[in-house]
Amino acid sequence: MSDDKSKQGQQDRSRVAGDERYEVEYFASRHGLTQAEARDLIDRIGNNRADLDAAAEKLNADRDAG
């Protein structure tokens, strides 16, 4: 199902539409991830943007530490 761009509110901004390529690209570029890494996080964590942001930050911190 496509993202309904006419219905943009807090609920829409709090989610990452994993089936929309541009959303995955934006999320990946924002966190310095590959699109595959971003999709993996979305599959594992879900589409809650706050949870995904935290998971991406942890992934980057783990990568920097190792």
Structural features:
mainly alpha, 66 residues
Q: How do the helices and strands line up, and which of them pair or pack?
A:
Elements: H1 10-13, H2 21-31, H3 35-45, H4 49-65
Helix pairs in contact: 2-3, 3-4
Walk me through what this model shows.
The protein is an all-alpha fold and 66 residues long. The chain has one domain. The protein is built from four helices and no strands. Helix 2 packs across helix 3 and helix 3 crosses helix 4. The longest helix is centred in the last third of the chain and has 17 residues.
Q: Number of helix segments?
A: 4
Count of structural domains: 1
Query: Kindly state the mean pLDDT as a whole number?
Result: 88
SS strand fraction: under 5%
Which oligomeric state applies? single chain
* Spans where pLDDT lies below 50 across 5 or more residues: none
Please trace the helix and strand order, writing H or E for each element: HHHH
Helix amount:
55-70%
| Gyration radius, in Å | 12 Å
Structural class by SSE content: mainly alpha
> How does the overall form come out from the CA principal axes?
elongated
State the total count of DSSP E strands. Answer: 0
Q: Whole-Å distance between the termini?
A: 39 Å
Query: What profile does the largest beta sheet have?
Result: none
